[in-house]
Amino acid sequence: MTLADRLAAVDTEIADAVRAAGSRPPTRIVVTKFHPASLVRELADLGVRDVGENRHQEAAAKAAEVDDSRLAWHFVGQLQSNKAKAVRRYARTVHSVDRISLVDALAADDGTDLGVFLEIALSDEIGRGGVSATEAEALAERVLAASGLTLLGVMGVAPLGEEPRAAFARLRAVSERIQTLSPLASAISAGMSGDFREAIAEGATHLRIGTAITGKRSTAG
């Protein structure tokens, strides 16, 4: 299948899942990590407007090389605080805010707003990022008080070995609590290539889909 074929096939599955859930169409973010800038350009020409990266060095270089005003860049990976200001320069949204020090590093009084999602830990897996569900409100309050940040909602990754919909249901419950602090922070970033249907069923508004659209990655580094 070509890139266009894979994109069309995923979009058809998304539409089917949306109809089944009776929900609004989500924002489809194509994650392009480990793929060249040429693939991003091809995606843009196919109508893609939201692309995601999870490593700052690769994301910054790719955003500079593509330099396409049609695209919105989403940072979806774990982010070190010392790289936060640099990510602000090209990203419209950061999906992985999971600690107060990162909120403080991302904040800026520069006349622009960066959209942020709180990454919620949906398991105790070692190496997974995310703030605990019990600490989510405190982190949300820090974002709401920060300059140059807009709290969009919550993000989560379904744990390995668990039925994804159950995990996304927990994420949805955290989302409902966050909305008591900020009613506009209603977005849910959830669902990847293997579980976006379950995410849509639990109210996902943003999907982060890589391999199902881009194909196998060309390199691991």
Please describe what this structure looks like.
The protein is of the alpha/beta class and 221 residues long. It has a single domain, classed as TIM Barrel (Alpha-Beta Barrel), CATH 3.20.20. It is 40% helix and 17% strand. It has helices at residues 3-21, 37-45, 56-66, 84-88, 100-106, 136-145, 164-181, 196-201, 211-214, and strands spanning 27-31, 50-53, 72-75, 93-97, 114-119, 149-155, 187-189, 206-209. The protein has an eight-stranded parallel beta sheet. Strand 4 (93-97), helix 5 and strand 5 (114-119) form a beta-alpha-beta unit. The longest helix is centred in the N-terminal third of the chain and has 19 residues, at 3-21. It is globular and about 45 Å long.
Number of contiguous helices: 9
N-end to C-end Cα span: 25 Å
| CATH level-1 class | Alpha Beta
Secondary structural class: alpha/beta
Number of domains: 1
Uncertain runs are none
Beta percentage is: 15-25%
Major beta-sheet overview: 8 strands, parallel
CATH topology category name: TIM Barrel
CATH superfamily: Alanine racemase
What is the number of E strands?
A: 8
Q: Per CATH, which architecture?
A: Alpha-Beta Barrel
Order of helices and strands: HEHEHEHEHEHEHEHEH
Rg, nearest Å: 17 Å
> What topology, given as strand order, has the largest sheet?
7-6-5-4-3-2-1-8
Keywords, please?
221 residues; alpha/beta; TIM Barrel; 8-stranded parallel β-sheet; 8 strands; 40% helix
Task: Describe the protein's topology.
Blueprint lengths: L2 H19 L5 E5 L5 H9 L4 E4 L2 H11 L5 E4 L8 H5 L4 E5 L2 H7 L7 E6 L16 H10 L3 E7 L8 H18 L5 E3 L6 H6 L4 E4 L1 H4 L7
Parallel strand pairs: 1-2, 1-8, 2-3, 3-4, 4-5, 5-6, 6-7
